[in-house]
Amino acid sequence: MNPGLLIPIYNHGSTIASVVEGLAPLGLRCLIVDDGSDEATRRVLRDLDARYEWVRVERRSPNAGRGSALRFGYRLASELGHTHAMQLDADGQHDPADVPTFLEAARRHPDAQVLGSPIFDGSAPAARRYGRWLSRFWVWLETCSLEIADPLCGMRCLPLGPTLRVLDASRCGDRMDFDPELVVRLAWAGVPAVNVPVRVRYFEAGISHFDVFRDNLRMTWLHARLCLETLPRLGRLLARPHAGTP
């Protein structure tokens, strides 16, 4: 197993340095995919790229969305020889100290998608908590399973072989709809899920790129499509002979 760190970033110049510093004790290569950030963020990234040998910044322009940045990052991580991508966000919501728990789970289950299961404190907006429950319901329906505890958490460790095969077969969304779609399609491909409890922190001045109107529309369209694709899968599942059936 050869894991690498992967961080997509868009205009989180005020937080990325502390995230990177928290990852330094791990001794892993860190790939930061800059998805068309502003000049202030680019200055911070240039400094990090020059300061740390283990950090590599790849700039893409213009901004094409979280999903587009992650697809690029997974492929580059694989080309660099990594077997797994340990993914976390650039906004500081995920604690770098939790990364070893994900890596240990991935070592025990190298063929699984290791997914963060958020533990929220009082700083978490109520809309975020309720939205997550709704997403869980749809994903449980689409996978015919309760195995995935949270399809939205951006902290996860993915096996790159199965991930790239899924992305070769289905592009998945370019923006916030990417993460849940990939999780579902990996489950359909037979990749098991391992859930790791993870602290998720919300900051008063934190920057969110979730567009309430557009991204909720994307999520609605995503789950409508996935549910339609689920119907023949559900039919095949129900048609399977049960043990002991003559």
Gap between N and C termini = 44 Å
Figure out the total of helices: 8
Query: Which percent band covers the strand fraction?
Result: 15-25%
Choose one word for the global shape.
Answer: globular
Query: How is the largest sheet built, in terms of strand order?
Result: 3-2-1-4-6-5-7
Structural class: alpha/beta
CATH class: Alpha Beta
What would your notes on this structure say?
The chain is an alpha/beta fold. It has a single domain, classed as Spore Coat Polysaccharide Biosynthesis Protein SpsA, Chain A (Alpha-Beta Complex), CATH 3.90.550. The protein is built from eight helices and seven strands; from the N terminus they run E-H-E-H-E-H-E-H-E-H-E-H-H-E-H. The chain has helices spanning 16-23, 39-51, 66-79, 99-108, 126-143, 160-169, 178-188, 212-239; strands spanning 3-9, 30-35, 55-60, 84-87, 113-120, 156-159, 193-200. A seven-stranded mixed β-sheet has the order 3-2-1-4-6-5-7, sandwiched between helices. Strand 1 (3-9), helix 1 (16-23) and strand 2 (30-35) form a beta-alpha-beta unit. The longest helix is centred in the last third of the chain and has 28 residues, at 212-239. The chain is globular and about 60 Å long. The termini are far apart. The mean pLDDT is 87.
Layout of secondary structure:
Blueprint: E1 3-9, H1 16-23, E2 30-35, H2 39-51, E3 55-60, H3 66-79, E4 84-87, H4 99-108, E5 113-120, H5 126-143, E6 156-159, H6 160-169, H7 178-188, E7 193-200, H8 212-239
Parallel strand pairs: 1-2, 1-4, 2-3, 5-7
Antiparallel strand pairs: 4-6, 5-6
Helix pairs in contact: 3-6, 5-7, 5-8
